[in-house]
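A reminder from the course coordinator: this example appears on the midterm review sheet, so study it carefully.

Given structure:
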């Protein structure tokens, strides 16, 4: 029977393919005593052999699609799966207690995990706990005859269906096979949505119940243009959505003609159109879509894709690759923004009631200067390979900025003393994502070289509404007059001091917001690479004087609905 639902259209396009369920299976079991040790030992051996084969396949697939460095984690998993001491203790438990293999496995591995997690002064050993936990889950699944989902091993065209997708899940998605995805939770600014736009695949998030209504292998249509999901559609519906997908593809071909065009409004005013990236591999999308800069390089993915803190040389290589790849065009690198929903297994952060308002980003860096200085040294060394701009995230006070810049200048002086070349004229700016910094922008503008407005967080902090919380998602309002007023103050403050303001939040590529931002005088728009060309197309149809009038009127409105209606009326003739 056909099932239809709607969600938040998070990434444009139409996908039609079989469902691949990325959901956690039930791995519960009961302890059974009085078992035959020989039979249980054989079951364990079979499960271990199957586990080892699976890890090898996942490792090879990850190496092919993600690279050797990212695949190293599976080497560690394989070492656990063949570890003679661990296996020996499980078999000893089976023999002495005459319990089922599942019970012996859990008893022994829980002991190892607890032991390694207790080694708080040894990051390497703490990581082994995570490896053991992952491998134990796979062995247990094989003992129970349950299949664990593994996105890295997908070898046919699918639509991924999940409750949510973690950054590590999305990192394993292969664009060759994953046509799109749909989730129960999330919003346009969740990491899964941002990753979908980076991968340029359709996505719908926040459907609430999609995993309850899809089975593995069901044919699924996801309409990332209008947020509609259809499970088990009839032939007429499939034909209709194929036509819609083809029409969108033709539109993309038209946009592609603008890849080498200047980003100018109808009256000839230039704006810098940039793209956001997470890794050097994202550069292809930036260049193929004609972006004029990298407006946000999220360096935390370097940390999240590593088993340990990345070394200075590892970071230098990554930054150098991006700077050289952009051929002299500007690259804004955000220093590590870990915390909130971005965790590192090897960095033990405190458990907090509200991590988004807690110990994260620059707050960690200023407290753990060693880690911060390593990153800054790598950035400064790489600066000679292109036009580097450094940006500090989550700045709330002038003191924080001054402290961070002081550390940066200290490391620059040390490198010069060591005879290591550092580029002159590196711009140093901050993300405006905390309302306190936005309100005090006229003071910050005297000391920074630029602002980049991070609207994803600025909106949730200003509206006091967690952007990941479905119950208050209606309060994520980019066009709310309060948000627009803050943005105007930030832009005006920068311009008063001869500085520039960019925007790296998802609002920068929002087709309703762009006319308003042009009118407000935003200098640089940075977005998912897949949004660059359609934004360039839209800007070419806008007249800046008309947009200034539109923005002024929008600031006088009382509700987001009134602002939206104003923009739609003002731009209705453009199509």
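Designed residues:
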């Amino acid at each position: 029977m056909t099932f239809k639902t709607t969600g938040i259209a998070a990434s444009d396009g139409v996908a039609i393919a079989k469902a691949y369920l990325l959901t956690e299976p039930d791995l519960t079991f009961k302890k059974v005593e009085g078992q035959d040790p020989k039979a249980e030992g054989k079951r364990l051996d079979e499960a271990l052999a199957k586990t080892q084969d699976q890890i090898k396949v996942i490792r090879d697939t990850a190496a092919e699609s993600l690279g050797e460095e990212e695949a190293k984690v599976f080497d560690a998993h394989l070492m656990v799966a063949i570890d003679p001491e661990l296996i020996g203790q499980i078999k000893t438990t089976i023999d002495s207690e005459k319990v089922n293999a599942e019970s012996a496995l859990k008893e022994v591995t829980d002991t190892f995990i607890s032991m390694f997690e207790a080694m708080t002064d040894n990051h390497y050993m703490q990581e082994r706990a995570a490896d053991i936990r992952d491998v134990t889950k796979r062995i247990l699944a094989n003992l129970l005859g349950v299949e664990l989902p593994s996105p890295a091993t997908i070898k046919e065209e699918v639509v991924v269906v999940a409750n949510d997708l973690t950054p590590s899940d999305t990192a394993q998605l292969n664009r060759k096979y994953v046509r799109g995805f749909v989730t129960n939770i999330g919003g346009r600014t969740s990491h899964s949505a941002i990753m979908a736009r980076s991968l340029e695949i359709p996505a719908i998030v926040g459907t609430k119940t999609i995993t309850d209504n899809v089975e593995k292998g069901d044919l699924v249509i996801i309409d990332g243009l209008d947020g509609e999901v259809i499970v088990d559609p009839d032939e007429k519906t499939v034909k209709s959505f194929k036509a819609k997908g083809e029409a969108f593809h033709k539109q993309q071909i038209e946009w592609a003609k603008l890849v080498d065009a200047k980003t100018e409004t109808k009256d000839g005013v230039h704006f810098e159109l940039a793209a956001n990236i997470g890794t050097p591999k994202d550069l292809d999308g930036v260049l193929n879509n004609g972006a004029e800069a990298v407006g946000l390089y999220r360096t935390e993915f370097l940390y999240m894709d590593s088993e340990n803190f990345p070394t200075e040389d590892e970071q230098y290589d990554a930054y150098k690759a991006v700077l050289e790849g952009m051929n002299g065009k500007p690259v804004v690198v955000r220093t590590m923004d870990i915390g909130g929903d971005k965790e590192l297994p090897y960095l033990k952060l405190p458990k907090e009631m509200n991590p988004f308002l807690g110990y994260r980003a620059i707050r960690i860096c200023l407290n753990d200067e060693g880690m911060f200085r390593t990153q800054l040294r790598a950035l400064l060394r790489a600066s000679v390979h292109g036009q580097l701009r450094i940006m500090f995230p989550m700045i709330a006070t002038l003191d924080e900025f001054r402290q961070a810049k002081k550390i940066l200048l200290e490391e620059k002086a040390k490198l010069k003393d060591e005879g290591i070349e550092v580029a002159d004229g590196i711009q140093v700016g901050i993300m405006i994502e905390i309302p306190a910094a936005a309100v005090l922008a006229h003071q910050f503008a005297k000391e920074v070289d630029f602002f980049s407005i991070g609207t994803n967080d600025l909106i949730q902090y200003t509206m006091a509404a967690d952007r990941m919380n479905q119950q208050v998602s209606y309060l994520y309002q980019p066009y709310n007059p309060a948000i627009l007023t803050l943005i105007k103050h930030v832009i005006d403050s920068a311009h008063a001091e001869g500085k520039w303001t960019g925007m790296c939040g998802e609002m920068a590529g929002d087709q309703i917001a762009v006319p308003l931002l042009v009118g407000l005088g935003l200098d640089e728009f940075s977005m998912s690479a897949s949004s660059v060309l359609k934004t360039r197309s839209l800007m070419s149809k806008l007249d800046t004087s008309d947009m200034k009038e539109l923005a002024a009127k929008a600031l006088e409105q009382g509700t987001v609905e009134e602002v939206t209606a104003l923009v739609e009326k003002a731009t209705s003739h453009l199509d």
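The chain has a mean pLDDT of 89. The chain has three domains: 3-23+154-253, 37-144, 271-571.
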